[in-house]
Amino acid sequence: MKVIVADDYEIMSKEAAKIVAAEVRKKPDSVFALPTGGTPFGLYGELIRMHKEEGLDFSRVSTFNLDEYIGLPDGHESSYRLYMYERFFNHVNVNRDQIYVPRGLAEDPEEEAATYEWAIKRAGGIDLAVLGIGRNGHIGFNEPKTEFGSLTRPIYLAKRTIEANARFFEGDPEAVPRQAISMGIRTIMNARKIILVASGPEKSHAVNQTVHGPVTEMVPSSVLQLHPDCTLFLDRDASCELKPSPNGFIPGPGIRSMVY
What we know:
Layout: E1 2-6, H1 9-26, E2 31-34, H2 41-54, E3 62-65, E4 67-69, H3 80-87, E5 99-100, H4 109-122, E6 128-131, E7 153-156, H5 159-165, E8 179-182, H6 185-189, E9 193-198, H7 204-212, E10 230-235, E11 249-252, E12 255-259
Parallel strand pairs: 1-10, 2-3, 2-6, 3-5, 6-9, 9-10
Antiparallel strand pairs: 1-12, 4-8, 7-8, 11-12
Helix pairs in contact: 1-2
């Protein structure tokens, strides 16, 4: 596992965006798994800048969202589909036919999840999964105790996750849906490359458990220790609980790179 620690959120976001851009340039028809939440704002902003100013071409890319709330229509102000269009898709040239987000109003969420998993396989699998992380170590909406062999499926959200996401529902935890469709741990781990972005001191404990803790289903993100090509991009606050790297670090302009 490689860990990139940046001096601040802006540098962290730009460094993570470089990995996504490099994948697009190397393989124009790349398949991505993409996150929502507050942390990716900067990453998406930098990718939009690269598209507009450097000609980064997303026209052949396919994207699969990590998750979506069950019960929210596509146009709901807190749906992840709307988030992705407002934060990213409306500003780049992604082919709309190659954008995949679970349908929150699907009549049968189990069937929707199975269809979504099949669509990922039909696309050739995920080349690069971009992840955020929850305070309890969840990735996607895979909460503690999720089986590492899990595939895309409907899940129930943990109380802590509901409370954390209330900020996207005018601060009202009661307005947050209790269920979502999420890529599973196995689905994510099947990605050929994974990057994770985390910022702020509230994520530092989960980051520490991800890097240094035992690999356990109680901390879903800890499974990333087993992936052959995984990089964490952190600001200094998110990295504050990490131990010094036994393999040292490589200094850069506002960053340091550590290998665990």
